[in-house]
Amino acid sequence: MSKQSTFTAALATMLGATLGGLFLWRSIRTQKRKVLKGPASAEPVQAQLEADVTASQPARQEPQTQKLLRARSPLDVPPVIVSSPEEWETLWPGFQKELSVYPVLGLDCEWVSVKGKPSAVSLLQLATFSGRCMLVRLLAFRDAQLPLPEGLVRVLSDPRVLKVGVGCYEDGKRLTHDHGLTLICTVDLRYLALRQRQAVLNNGLSLKSLAADLLNVSLDKSLELRCSDWEADVLTQEQMAYAAHDAQISVALFFHLLGMKTEPRLPAEGESTFVQLASCCQGLVDVPFRVRYNGEGEDGERRRRSRKSTVESPESGDQQVPDPRRNKRKPLGVGYSARKSPLYDNCFLHAPDGQPLCTCDKKKAKWYLEKGIGELVSEDPFVVRLLFEPSGRPDSQKDYYLTAKENVCVVCGKADSYIRKNIVPHEYRRHFPPEMKDHNSHDILLLCTSCHAASNVHDGVLKQRLAEEHSAPQGCEEGIRLLEDADRRRVRSAARALLSASDGMPQSRKEELLSVIQSFFCNAQQEVTQEMLQKAAALETRIFKESYVPHGLKVVQVYAEHGLRGLMDLERCWRQHFLTSMQPRHLPPLWSVNHNHDKYLRKYGEDLQIQLN
After folding, report:
1. Cα–Cα distance between 433 and 564 in angstroms, integer?
2. Of 107, 160, 262, 331, which has the most beta carbons under 10 Å away?
3. pTM of the model as a whole
4. CB 109 within 8 A of CB 124
């Protein structure tokens, strides 16, 4: 059996069980259910039904829809072309029914690039969980001077319908620029793959790689198809299949990454299906994909092949969202500069009476010898006995700083290409009081470049959560101190759309955009001139915020309100986050989430006056 056939059978079974379970749920929604859930958990959310409810399940599990789903997979569902309002109105009710079951759309876009300059988005692909897929030919509406369907405009801007894919946030920027559409509630599958630790990182994070690694499905990404004429009067069957598969696979990957393989995910009492799904994407909604490494995807993520975006937005990433490889497979983290020497020399310092004090690097140990304040005890291991009484001694011989440490990645055990990782990020640690910054090498561990890159993505999720909980927005001072004015940005977007695509824009849409500009400049009494359009297109949309406080300092200030224990909680939070998200298998002995906390309390007491740095 082929790889695609295997996937077909497996996914058909999954969808059959899913839809059947939902029919049952609707008929017994008054029964008790237990749902295991968490805002960022990788575990599936499984509904546990009462025994008497389960016993009644077979009699209600064979609706005609389920039988149909068992006979085909999403990739087997033929896509349909939408080029007119009438075609949309005919097909949209069926899509709405499926969105009421699972409010998730796989989304993708295609456009033509001429001499490296991209044209307007010509094709928008939307797929539901069953594989039903619409290929909306946006330029057909523009050429016929027809308004885009209201249902399309609403669903793209619906905050309770997830749009999933690879690079879907950036696709939204293009849709806004080219057609004035607003796309929100997007989730980039690459973030989900990294968070759930299900991506085979050495194979990259392109849609093709994720489909092959996670679903065992091979997508056709040939240059001939990718660079074909998406503005042709009639699309070929190969073009339609290529375009539809990207959106269909995106939905399948989404459910796979949430662990929904064989059982339906039923909402908890008082919650909707959307809330259940969105809770698994917390911190990832409408976030542009940014991971530091060089190179783009093997296929440039289909549409990034030598294209430069015309979207003038610092958030768009200029459509150049990188992938871990380019032409040749390169591991995630290839852009990092690895250490050229070991971090741990595992030399030992002893007190004058021979008591071990700590480990140190060889350079420091030799310094004591060169200054004549230490004497060499042995070469292997390298031990130096001090000739003076040290300022402090370990409380116990079972101390973290007395243990020898391996120069390997603490996550995967890789013994080369490693760099240091700050478990408590520097942007927080730098504001800690001096008492909590002494001897903090405990929170500096070795990670290989691949694990380091993945860990940074996980860190971004926790930072976003802290930002939301404590009203501490992330970003550089320029980006946060200057706040975005939504009204001014709407005016600027309208002006830019009119300047770039006015000729092919439907008259109703043009009038709508003109009214936005009129109301801002002249209370809709004066006619909009070309000079006014140019002024609106260059409008400054940011407002200066004098009360700006850096994200890291704001978070530390909140925890410091609870004194020493509050800061210890923040430290413990980051350490536990590292253990949970990365699941390290090679941690140094005695590494602990509560490291030094008892010592702080004994030495300084709970009433320590916190002086933030």
Report:
1. 10
2. 107
3. 0.46
4. yes
